[in-house]
Structure formats: C-alpha cells, structure tokens
Amino acid sequence: MKIADMNWMQVDNYLQDDDRCVLPLGSVEQHAYLSLATDALLAERVALDAAEPLGVPVFPVQSYGLAPYFSAFPGTVTLKTGTYLALVRDLLDSLARQGFRRIVIVNGHGGNAPAAALATEWMAENPEVQVKFHNWWNAPRTLAFVKACDADSSHASWMESLPFTRVSGATPPATGKPLIDFARYAVLNPELVREYIGDGNFGGAYTRPEADTERMWQIAVEETRALIEGPWR
Fold this sequence. Notes:
By secondary structure, the protein is mainly alpha-helical. The protein has one domain (about 5-230): Creatininase (Rossmann fold). About 40% of the residues lie in helices and about 10% in strands. The protein has helices at about 10-15, 40-50, 80-100, 115-125, 140-150, 180-185, 190-195, 210-230, and strands at about 20-25, 100-105, 130-135. The chain has a three-stranded parallel β-sheet with strand order 1-2-3, sandwiched between helices. Strand 2, helix 4 (about 115-125) and strand 3 form a beta-alpha-beta unit. Helix 2 packs across helix 8, helix 3 crosses helix 4 (about 115-125) and helix 5 packs antiparallel against helix 8 (about 210-230). The chain is globular, with a radius of gyration of 18 Å. The relative contact order is 0.18. The mean pLDDT is about 100.
C-alpha cells in the first residue's frame, strides 16, 4: 500500500503489529525511446505490486540518483555521490526513528550501487534494524528469464519497456542492437558516451511480444515479494 494513501495515525496503528516498509530508489536519465523516469517508475511499481498483498507500506520513490555518465543527454538529472549517500542515510535514519525495523530498498538503477554499501555500513551502526537492498532487474529468476529471451538485453531495451514507461509519439526501431563494449564505455566522458551509444540503448531488442514482458514482470514481482516476506532474523 502507498504511504501516500495513509495518514500518520494509520501508520502508527500499522507499526503496532508490523515493522516492515519498502523504499524504492530510481533515477531520471536517458532511456532511449522510453521515459526519462523509467528507473523511478519501474522501481516504484514493482515495489507496490509486490507489497500490496502483504499490506506493507511503500514510500514514494526517491527519483533522483547517480547518472553522471548520461549527463550529456538532455533531461538527465544526477546527484553527486556524497549528496546521494547523505540523502539515503537520512532516509534510513528517519524510517528507523519512526519504528521501522525491517526495510527493503527496491532499487531500479545500477548507478545507485553505492547505496548498497551505505546500507551495509548503516546496519552496522544500527544493529536493531535490518535492511535488504534489492536490484529488481537482476534478481536471479528475473535476469535468467530476460537473458533466455534475448541475451543482449540491457539498459533501455524491451526489459524496461512496460506500458507505463513508454512515451507518446516515440516509435523504437523494429530491430535490436548488439551489446555495447562495457570496457570501452567505462572510460568515456559523458559527451563521448553519448557519441558511442547513440540513442541510449545498451543492447538488445527494443520490443518483444507483450507476453514476454508480462511474464518478466510477474517474475520480478514474485521475487520482490519473497524478499519482503523474508527470511528476516
């Protein structure tokens, strides 16, 4: 359930019986023909779909993340690493203060990886709180299904193309793209990144049959829900 649909008294009542919550993390960055907010939209939706049957509250997605390598693409917004880690720390501090003791961070953007290390460090300082950091798109079953469909699937490909991430007036190519050379990509500045990757897709088909997308999403929701359920210590 959405925290946005609750008032403070309802949260107070919830905390009498349960101490779990979900915090989605996303990014606002280029996604080729898809929405600039794709990572934020996907992280929040998979968290909501997973948590709804469990009655666990989901906080609004933290939409801005770490995407300096895409900063030459118009519309991309990025935070400095220090700023981002301080923000995530403040969020965890606040949730713990309210009484949440089991927190699942559902991450939708690979560039936010430093937050995973921060969560581990934070738990060492707050041993009464458990935090799970979950990259929904590369959870074992989800990633296995994606790669079985299209081994080159990556950023801005069909695996991120859901009805709510597609934008009006954008028609992606019917063919796919070969996977980029990540070793080369890793040493390029933002302007050279834009020149190298072109439209922004890292590789793979732009679209696949809706049945594939729906099955991938079902698996992703199932894996995320299982993580919220447990095990917890």
